[in-house]
């Protein structure tokens, strides 16, 4: 497949959006607030701005997972609803979320926005040429008329598709954007067409579940600490998780104050020993 | 009471800052509009206007219109374009020529996005469905039907409306749109059920097929499984289309080819209809009238101690000095200004005022409603108010369009007549009706009427113009009706048959009508054999009603076949069926508009005879009416209809001198303001499957026409020196209700209905509009405002009658923050 205006138009950002979510959750693991306790194996550092803000979000997401753990009563140590609300609110309504989502999206777009085996980055070496060709194609009456017909046929995603075009133009030849938007506004004035992609939130809360980090949380909880008490032995599970709750979760007001039932004392003949 | 809201305003359009190309359809001289005519495109370029490559250096931008008059060496152009509320399209007139006297007027309509036309190719024969079309040799293909795809808007609709033409036939209801797996548009054509009609007009049409468009819509590929000439063979025809590029469609050089500077412009001295049409009133006139009314009110306030005090307190002004004529006018209603209008005005303004200086004392909800009702029901239609507004209008109009003075000086009545003749040409009326049908907008018609009245206040051309528009709207609906009701049909068809025979048997029948005479003779013979005209009519009526189809031509086609099959020896008589179907259409429209049951037997007979005689002239012009209905004949019939406005007016006038008022009352009663719907089961529903559409169009037209006619009546009464009576007030009140209801149901904004003369503006829109949006006072101190509210406003409101709401409270865009 060779480069073409049609291929450029068809390049789909679905893979980019999926990859943004994965990159985001991966990036959160690198934050010190959670990495030391739950993600020891993550070597990278958090590469984006607002580290403090995202540290708290990561903490809350981990707390949501703790609140759903079935191990050693850890679920009782966290205000489940408060933890969920904390990170969901910050993902849904914040400029930080929009900004971070766009940083990741921008980074991944060239390599992952693709169709028919070609990616967007193939067009970047001649960005002005391809930007102008795409702008010309999407302002032709034939395209507008068939797009409106698609809308009448029930194509509910047309604003997103149009904004994807605006974004591609922005990356290729930004000076064309106003002209294209103006043409579409004239063609379809009742719909208040505008450049909306800068406001898109690629990491909205609905993409994530409270169980997002349940596996690493349970793994951390399952870490047993052994302490000798004379002939008996005390076993404590998830001691670092305890510390995390007492420190990070409490700081966010997410800790209930209830302690986990994660400690047991074994007599000398205890099989756990 | 429902919580519906009438929209008072359409937002002004940003015409001055737009950059947009409009593709122009020009009148083709046959009542239709087409691309490739005398005007091709209009471009807005951020304050500059370019018409077919000619820069218009000093265009006048109105709120929703633009106009120009420009003379350079050897080149004159003038124009007036009225934009639809969404700014996507316009209707208007453009004039070109070497000078104003020689300029040719062309009615135009323009759209922002041109429909896309495809040049198509189709295989000459069917091929197995699994054939690879791309492998077929070039000589396997022939030219196919032209295909056109676009859309149009109606303000307020959630979605645009699809426009699809196949070989010139609009078929949006006969296509199914889908989106393919790859996201591309697919269109299925399903015309098979209408084959009997569409194939009658054009045998080259395709009846069923499916096409798939490319990503950018510049081409399509597909298959046709049924055509008019080959409805059910094996295999498929392959069909492909390529867009006819804009460049290939342009008929004018690029607009960059002509350059003009201010030095090239010459003064336009000669008077012309072309220029006159650019001098229509706009919002500027309305604003001027409103300002003058406030001036008069302030002057009246200044004539009393208390009023002077309020003037100083609330406006920080002294008594204004008026021009002598305005002062004389204000004196006539001095008491009304002082005791009614100024208090109501201040009360409304202060009650709505917000901000640090706003009074703390406010009306309660009941008082507020009482005041609103009083403003709408009592002040709006009141004689003093209308006298003031009418008196102020002409001067304001002249101030806004000073060039009009030259036309007055040259004989206003003469120019009114010339204008009337120009705007009642078939193409002009078609344009007006097209706008009313597509956008439910009568603004251009209202403006023309206002100009006619202003040029010749003693004439009757404003009324005649609106009646012409109304007659054209009714003719438009003729072919949209059907024969459905047996009893009703039998009330007119026997008489129509008899009238038909009489018309063609009369001595001196022209040779042109020879074929019609033969048919008439056969009809007479058939009637004798059946018993009488009623017996023959019975057969015709039963066959028409039983005939399948969705239109009169459709019904006619099937009914004629059935009649010939049953009575082959009267095949000639059966050729009268299309003529009769047409009579049915006209009679249906008249019945629906004026009511049938209320007509006397004599009126009914006059209707039928008059219709037959009117259509006889059409049959002479279009002899195919007695033969096979071809596309050429169909176009000819429509051309005749476009030019038959006077005949239709004459027919209606024979039924009643006041047919327009009668019809307006009948039509507006079909709108239900409470449910915001057109009432179901109206008379129109007995004749047409698209009753609500017909009622909507007629409703828009009659609301505007009736408003004009009512105001005209008021003027006539005043002009004759008679004191305006209660009847006039009743009429104004009625029209306020009627127009409001139509606006509610059709989700119009008032401006589309209004006649621009101030009386109706305010009678309909209500004073609230004027007060709230234009005259909000700016109180400087809180205590006087509170004092006014407590001592004057609230007692004033409390003594007002409670009154039932005329219509739901108007929704107003308050200028928040206007009060400091």
Descriptive account of the structure:
The complex is a heterodimer of chains A (273) and B (820). By secondary structure, chain A is mainly alpha-helical. In chain A, 53% of the residues lie in helices and 7% in strands. Chain A contains twelve helices and five strands. In chain A, the strands form two sheets. Chain A has a three-stranded antiparallel β-sheet with strand order 3-4-5, with no helix packed on it. Chain A has a two-stranded antiparallel sheet with strand order 1-2. In chain A, strand 3 (224-229) and strand 4 (232-237) form a beta hairpin. In chain A, helix 2 packs across helix 6, helix 3 packs antiparallel against helix 12 and helix 7 runs antiparallel to helix 9. The mean pLDDT of chain A is 90. Chain B is an alpha+beta fold and 820 residues long. In chain B, strands 1, 2, 3, 4, 5, 6, 7, 8, 9, 10 and 21 form an eleven-stranded antiparallel β-sheet that branches. The interface between A and B is medium-sized, with 28 and 34 residues.
């Amino acid at each position: 497949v060779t480069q073409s205006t049609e291929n450029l138009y068809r390049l789909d950002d679905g893979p980019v959006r999926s990859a943004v979510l994965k990159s985001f959750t991966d990036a959160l693991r690198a934050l010190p607030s959670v990495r030391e306790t739950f993600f020891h194996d993550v070597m990278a550092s958090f590469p984006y701005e607002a580290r403090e803000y995202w540290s708290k979000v990561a903490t809350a997401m981990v707390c949501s997972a703790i609140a759903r753990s079935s191990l050693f009563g850890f679920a009782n140590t966290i205000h489940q609803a408060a933890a969920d609300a904390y990170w969901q609110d910050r993902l849904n309504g914040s400029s930080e979320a929009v900004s971070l989502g766009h940083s990741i999206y921008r980074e991944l777009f060239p390599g992952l926005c693709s169709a028919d085996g070609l990616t967007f980055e193939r067009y970047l070496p001649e960005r002005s040429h391809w930007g102008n060709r795409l702008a010309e194609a999407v302002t032709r009456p034939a395209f507008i008329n068939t797009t409106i017909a698609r809308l009448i046929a029930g194509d509910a995603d047309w604003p997103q598709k149009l904004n994807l075009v605006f974004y591609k133009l922005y990356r290729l030849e930004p000076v064309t954007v106003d002209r294209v938007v103006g043409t579409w506004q004239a063609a379809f004035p009742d719909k208040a067409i505008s450049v909306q992609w800068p406001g898109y939130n690629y990491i909205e809360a609905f993409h994530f579940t409270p169980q997002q980090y349940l596996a690493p949380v349970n793994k951390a909880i399952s870490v047993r600490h052994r302490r000798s008490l004379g002939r008996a032995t005390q076993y404590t599970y998830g001691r670092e998780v305890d510390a995390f709750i007492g420190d990070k979760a409490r700081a966010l007001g997410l800790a209930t104050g209830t302690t986990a039932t994660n400690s047991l004392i074994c007599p000398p003949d205890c099989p756990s020993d | 009471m429902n919580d519906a809201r009438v929209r008072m305003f359409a937002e002004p359009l940003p015409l001055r800052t737009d950059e947009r190309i409009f593709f122009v359809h020009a009148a083709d001289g046959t009542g239709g509009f087409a691309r490739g005519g005398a005007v091709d495109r209009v471009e807005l370029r951020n304050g500059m206007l370019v018409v077919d490559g000619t820069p218009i250096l000093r265009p006048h931008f109105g709120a929703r219109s633009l106009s120009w008059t420009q003379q350079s060496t050897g080149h004159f152009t003038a124009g007036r374009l009225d934009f639809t509320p969404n700014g996507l399209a316009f209707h208007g007139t453009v004039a070109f020529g070497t000078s104003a006297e020689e300029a040719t007027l062309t009615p135009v309509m323009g759209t922002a996005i041109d429909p896309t036309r495809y040049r198509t190719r189709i295989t000459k024969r069917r091929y197995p469905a699994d054939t690879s079309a791309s492998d077929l040799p070039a000589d396997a293909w022939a030219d196919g039907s032209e295909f056109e795809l676009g859309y149009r808007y109606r303000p307020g609709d959630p979605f645009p409306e699809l426009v699809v033409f196949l070989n010139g036939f609009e078929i949006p209801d006969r296509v199914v749109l889908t989106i393919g797996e790859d996201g591309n548009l697919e269109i299925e054509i399903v015309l098979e059920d209408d084959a009997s009609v569409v194939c009658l007009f054009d045998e080259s049409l395709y009846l069923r097929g499916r096409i798939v468009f490319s990503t950018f819509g510049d081409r399509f590929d597909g298959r046709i499984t049924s055509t008019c000439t080959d409805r059910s063979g094996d295999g498929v025809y392959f069909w492909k289309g390529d867009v006819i590029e804009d460049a290939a469609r342009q008929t004018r050089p690029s607009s960059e080819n002509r350059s003009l500077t201010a030095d090239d412009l010459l003064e336009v001295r000669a008077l012309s209809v072309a220029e006159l049409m650019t001098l229509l009133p706009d919002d500027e006139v309305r604003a001027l009238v409103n300002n003058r009314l406030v001036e008069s009110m302030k002057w009246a306030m200044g004539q009393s101690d208390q009023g002077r005090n309020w003037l100083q307190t609330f406006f920080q002004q002294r008594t204004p000095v008026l021009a002598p004529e305005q002062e004389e006018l204000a004196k006539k209603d001095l008491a009304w200004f002082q005791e009614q209008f100024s208090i109501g005005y201040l009360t409304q303004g202060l009650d709505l005022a917000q901000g640090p200086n706003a009074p703390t004392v406010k009306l309660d909800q009941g008082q507020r409603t009482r005041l609103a009702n009083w403003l709408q029901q009592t002040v709006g239609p009141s004689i003093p108010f209308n006298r003031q507004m009418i008196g102020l209008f002409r001067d304001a109009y002249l101030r806004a369009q000073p060039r009009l003075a030259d036309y007055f000086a040259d004989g206003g009545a003469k120019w009114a007549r010339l204008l009337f003749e120009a705007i009642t040409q078939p193409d002009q009326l078609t344009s007006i009706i097209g706008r009313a049908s597509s956008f439910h907008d009568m603004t251009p018609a209202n403006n023309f009427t206002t100009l006619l009245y202003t040029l010749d206040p003693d004439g009757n051309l404003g009324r005649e113009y609106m009646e012409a528009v109304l007659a054209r709207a009714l003719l438009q609906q003729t072919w949209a009706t059907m024969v459905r009701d047996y009893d009703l049909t039998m009330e007119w068809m026997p008489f129509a048959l008899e009238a038909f025979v009489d018309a063609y048997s009369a001595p001196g029948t022209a040779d042109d009508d020879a074929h019609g005479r033969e048919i008439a003779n056969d009809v007479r013979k058939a009637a004798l054999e059946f018993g009488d005209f009623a017996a023959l009519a019975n057969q015709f009526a039963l066959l028409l009603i039983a005939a399948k189809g969705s239109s009169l031509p459709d019904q006619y086609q099937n009914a004629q076949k059935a009649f010939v099959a049953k009575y082959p020896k009267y095949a000639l008589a059966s050729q009268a069926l299309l003529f009769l179907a047409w009579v049915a259409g006209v009679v249906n429209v008249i019945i629906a508009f004026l009511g049938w049951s209320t007509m006397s037997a004599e009126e009914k007979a006059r209707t039928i005879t008059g219709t037959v005689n009117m259509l006889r002239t059409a049959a002479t012009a279009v002899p195919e009416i007695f033969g096979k209905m071809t596309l050429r004949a169909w176009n000819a019939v429509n051309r005749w209809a476009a030019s038959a406005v006077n005949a239709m007016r004459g027919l209606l006038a024979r039924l009643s001198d006041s047919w327009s008022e009668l019809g307006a009352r009948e039509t507006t009663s079909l709108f239900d303001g409470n449910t915001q719907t057109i009432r179901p089961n109206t008379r129109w529903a007995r004749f047409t499957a698209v009753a609500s559409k017909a009622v909507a169009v007629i409703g828009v037209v009659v609301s505007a026409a009736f408003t004009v006619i009512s105001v005209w009546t008021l003027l006539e009464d005043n002009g004759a020196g008679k004191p305006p009576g209660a009847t006039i007030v009743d009429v104004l009140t009625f029209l306020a209700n009627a127009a409001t209801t139509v606006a509610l149901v059709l989700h119009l904004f008032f401006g589309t209905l209004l006649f621009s003369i101030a009386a109706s503006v305010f009678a309909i829109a209500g004073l609230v509009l004027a007060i709230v949006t234009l005259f909000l006072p700016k109180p400087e101190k809180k205590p006087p405002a509170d004092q006014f509210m407590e001592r004057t406003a609230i007692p004033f409101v409390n003594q007002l009658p409670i009154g039932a709401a005329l219509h739901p409270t108007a929704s107003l865009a308050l200028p928040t923050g206007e009060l400091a």
